[in-house]
Amino acid sequence: MAEYEPWEQKIMADNWERDQQPKEPSQPDDRKRFFGVGFTGTREGMTSEQCSAFYQVISELPEFEIEFHHGDCIGADDNAADIFDDWRHEPGEGELRIVCHPPIDATHRAWNKRADETRKPKTHFARNRDIVDESEMLIACPQYMGPITKDTKGGTAYTVNYARKQKKRIVIIRPDGSIETV
């Protein structure tokens, strides 16, 4: 075994102690924390009752820093982004951001210009999972009045079911404007 001078032993002991301490991040995460609100809906768009109910739901959100995530498809995504953008410009609102999660297949893409950030395009299901994963709650506007079960087909149902698995708060706004919290 090698012999070390006392000063070398002190440096090694100090280094060992330092290495046992919890590591500070090399660069602090200074990004602002937002309350994530995800959205899913149909390409057919929202009914006027759904639009009114959606406005009511976002107006009642208690957080002042909100990040709104949508899939940038024609129809309900585009409707919701426009309503959210109009709402965020009203006096007295806090910092509100719009994040767009576009699909790879641009056939039904809305190309909504109101986004503060646009993520890399992904498949519909992958980007829907990202929307849920980056949100604390999901607002869904289906085109039907019936229940959304694990057997219900379509992207809106897929996203709601994924949000259920992730134990997210879910608000469903039916075509008649009725609001259901899951």
Strand order of the largest sheet: 4-3-2-1-5-6-7
The CATH class designation is Alpha Beta
Number of strands: 7
Number of helices: 5
CATH architecture, by name, is 3-Layer(aba) Sandwich
The helix-strand sequence is HEHEHEEHEHEE
What does this structure look like?
By secondary structure, this protein is α/β, with parallel strands linked by helices. The protein has a 7-stranded mixed beta sheet, sandwiched between helices. Residues 18-29 have low confidence and may be disordered. The protein starts with 5 loop residues before the first helix and ends with a strand. It has a single domain (35-181), classed as Rossmann fold (3-Layer(aba) Sandwich), CATH 3.40.50.450. Helices cover 34% and strands 18% of the residues.
Task: Jot down its keywords.
single chain, alpha/beta, 7-stranded mixed sheet, 34% helix, globular
Question: Can you give me a brief rundown of this structure?
Answer:
The protein is of the alpha/beta class and 182 residues long. The protein has helices spanning 6-20, 48-59, 76-88, 124-133, 155-165; strands spanning 35-41, 66-70, 96-100, 117-118, 137-141, 169-173, 179-181.
